[in-house]
Amino acid sequence: MERDQAVFDNLLDRENKLVADILSGFRGLVLHGVAKAGDRSSTGQAAYNAMAVEILMNGMVTHPITNAITYVRF
């Protein structure tokens, strides 16, 4: 019975880490997405924000979300 509880706790810990990774990724995505381009912003700054959003999205899809989908299948 203790072994079952240890396995259950391990699964909950893994789930919490996956959720934290996904939320962290969304936080970074939102921060880059809402960055205002003011009057003094350059085209380079806008390009940087666009590239950062793309990199964050690709990173979220390839790692945390894929792991979460794999986790849910079990």
TrEMBL record:
This protein's name: Uncharacterized protein
Native source organism of the sequence: Bombardia bombarda
